[in-house]
């Protein structure tokens, strides 16, 4: 692991993560799923690391959608946070909770694991439909309250699934912005309209909400430099980083079946010494 001269406590990491969304520079988060990926990004001078729920689930043999047991997820998050000295933000889907008490306990455990930021989405996992705005706002308020009680200002990235799931809204942009204002008022620090990809909608959302906005890399979105100019604060990859890694593994495995690929392995610039440097 890269040696750092400054050891940050959790409160300082939370403050640093907040500042990364308000510095005028696009925060790019290639979402990881284990501690080695986190240590790699820290070694490359990324200022923070983020998990993606799909990547963590897939890498451990589960489907996305809160199918990985919460205790397993918690152990993974704890391991990641222990191995890096940069802020860690975690995708916790809808919170793995069926009631407020369970959500409160889960958030407490996530904070105790060393995490300083979370993604919380507004999908009801039982019905795969959007939660009412009022219900999601209460969840955000509860998370904010728990973080204040634990003296760790957890950064709440409020994800809305309007563009992903809504089939009833006549105007998805209008419904998205409505939810953005509500989540902001409830205490959200960042707004994440997942799968929103048109420059016009992104620009309107950023301008109207006047808060950090997170965009996911997908077909149709503007270039990264253009997103930064538009005022987007954060870009994430979701499971894209994992899929890129799996693509490389699959391509090499195909070559090996044909008795090819030896040079790819021998000439690989990622040596055992480099990987050992990350973890020792």
Short overview:
This protein has 13 helices and 10 strands.
Structure description:
This protein has one domain: Alpha-Beta Barrel (TIM Barrel), CATH 3.20.20.60. A hairpin with a 4-residue loop joins strand 5 and strand 6 (129-130). Helix 4 (70-83) runs parallel beside helix 5, helix 6 (133-149) packs parallel to helix 8 (172-186) and helix 8 runs parallel beside helix 9. The protein is 50% helix and 12% strand. The chain is built from 13 helices and ten strands. The protein is an alpha/beta fold. The radius of gyration is 19 Å and the shape is globular. A five-stranded parallel beta sheet has the order 2-3-4-7-8. Strands 1-10-9 form a three-stranded parallel beta sheet, with no helix packed on it.
Tally of helical runs: 13
Write down the Rg.
19 Å
Strand content: 5-15%
The H-and-E topology, N to C, reads as HEHEHHEHEEEHEHHEHEHEHHH
Q: Can you tell me the CATH architecture?
A: Alpha-Beta Barrel
Q: CA-to-CA gap between the ends? A: 6 Å
What's the CATH class, please?
A: Alpha Beta
Class per helix and strand makeup:
alpha/beta
Morphology call: globular
Mean pLDDT: 95
